[in-house]
Amino acid sequence: MSISEFFTLDLIPSGEVFFRDHELPDIAVDPKITMKLLGHQTKGREMQMLHEYYEPGADTGESMLRHDGEEGGVVVRGTIQLTVGDKVETLSVGDGYYFNSQLPHLFVNNSDGICEIISANSPPTF
After folding, report:
1. Which among 10, 26, 58, 122 is placed 20 to 30 Å from 48, CA to CA?
2. Chain segment 45-95, per-residue pLDDT in tens
3. Contact 114, 78 (CB under 8 A)
4. What is the pLDDT of residue 39?
5. Which domain of life does the UniProt lineage start with (predicted)?
C-alpha cells in the first residue's frame, strides 16, 4: 500500500471504484421514478451521482424540493420540465442545469416518453 492510499482509505467508504448497472441501488420512493445511486453509500463522500429515469407523467412531488448544496445534470434521453424558483424550462437531450439546491425546485416529465438524466449534487442529500 502506498502512502497516498493509506491516507485516503476513508475517502471512498466501500473502497470500490467501479459499479455495474445492476449493483446501483434505487433510492427513489415514487414508482414512476428511478434514481440509481452511483456507489452503495454516501457516508464520507462529498459528491453524489445519480442515474435518473422519469416515466411519463412522473414528478418529484406536489411541493417543491429544497435542501442544502448544489446540483447539476444533463438530459441524455427525452425531455423534462424543470422549475427552479420562478424559472420554468423544458430541457431536451444535451441540455443541462446547475443551481443552488436551496432554491425551490421541481422536476416533471410531461412527455409521452421516458426522460433519462445523469446528475450530481454536493453535498450528498440521499
Report:
1. 58
2. 889 999 999 999 999 998 999 999 999 999 999 999 999 999 999 999 999
3. yes
4. 81
5. Bacteria
- For residue 126, give the nearest of 52, 54, 35, 51 by alpha carbon: 35
Cα 4 to Cα 1, 11, 13: the distances in Å are 8, 11, 16
Domain interval for residue 17:
3-122
Phi, psi for 106 (deg, rounded to 5): -155, 135
Per-residue model confidence (pLDDT) at position 35: 95
CA angle at residue 55 from 88 to 69, to 5 degrees? 50
CATH number of the domain encompassing residue 76: 2.60.120.10
pTM: 0.84
Q: Could you tell me how many residues make up the chain? A: 126
Number of domains composing the chain: 1
